[in-house]
Amino acid sequence: MLLDKNFLIGVGLGIAAGAVGYKLYNEHRQTILESLDNLKNRMCPGAGSEVAVTEQQTTEIDLAELEKQKEHLEDLIAEQQMKQAEQNASKA
Predict the structure, then answer these.
(1) What is the pLDDT, as a whole number, of residue 44?
(2) DSSP state, residue 45
(3) CA distance linking residue 41 with residue 36, whole number of Å
């Protein structure tokens, strides 16, 4: 027999477990999403929404660090411009 009793019981229990899980997820969706956002923010700070920088935070960063970050950003911009120029040249 292709569909025996144990197989059908397993399928039925699987469907029931899925339905209960879906119902619980919908009831606690906002809490789950907030928990995932908190986890994501702890794992990758700054990922996701933009971080508001207060005046106090900007005064705590020294000038040398700001210059270092500026140079890094300028390097990234130059790399992107070179890649874009190479792509445009290969298309032409």
Answers:
(1) 79
(2) T
(3) 9
Half-sphere exposure of 25 (CA within 13 A, CB side): 7
Q: Which residues contact 25 (CB under 8 A, 6 or more apart)?
A: 32
Q: How far apart are CA 2 and CA 33, in angstroms?
A: 42
**pTM exceeds 0.70, yes or no:** no
Exposed, middle or buried, 46 (CB in 10 Å: 0-12/13-18/19+)? Answer: exposed
Tell me the C-alpha distance between 61 and 85, whole Å: 35
Q: In the predicted model, what is the mean pLDDT of residues 40-44?
A: 82
SS3 of 37-64: HHHHHHHCCCCCCCCCCCHHHHHHCCHH
Residue with tokens 């292709």: 2
**pLDDT per residue as tens digits for the range 17-32:** 999 999 999 999 999 9
